[in-house]
């Protein structure tokens, strides 16, 4: 009977682990969406132009969000982030 309990315990752990990965994947996708929106926002502001100080500030924010986007490897969600 001991192997059955061990097997059942392993199955429970595997299902919990899989569930956690799905949730973390969804959270990562949401974070990537937010970053994508911020990147597009600052890109749009810079394209419109403005004062030198504002442009530098926007560039700094843009680079920060782009670095975070790369760190999270958001390119995995390229299809989900694509605009229609």
Outline the secondary-structure elements.
Blueprint lengths: L1 H47 L3 H20 L6 H4 L3
**Average predicted confidence as pLDDT:** 80
From N to C, what is the helix and strand string?
A: HHH
Percent in helix: over 70%
Radius of gyration: 21 Å
- How many E strands? 0
How far is it from the N-terminal to the C-terminal residue, by CA?
57 Å
Q: Structural class per helix/strand content?
A: mainly alpha
State the major sheet. none
Number of helices: 3
Proportion of beta-strand residues: under 5%
Q: What number of structural domains do the residues give?
A: 1
Q: Which stretches are low in confidence, meaning pLDDT under 50 for 5 or more residues running?
A: 11-22
Shape from CA axes? elongated
What would you note in describing this structure?
The protein is mostly helical. It has one domain (2-81). 85% of the residues lie in helices and 0% in strands. The protein contains three helices and no strands. Helix 1 (2-48) runs antiparallel to helix 2 (52-71). It is elongated. It starts with a helix and ends with a helix. The model is unreliable at 11-22 (pLDDT under 50).
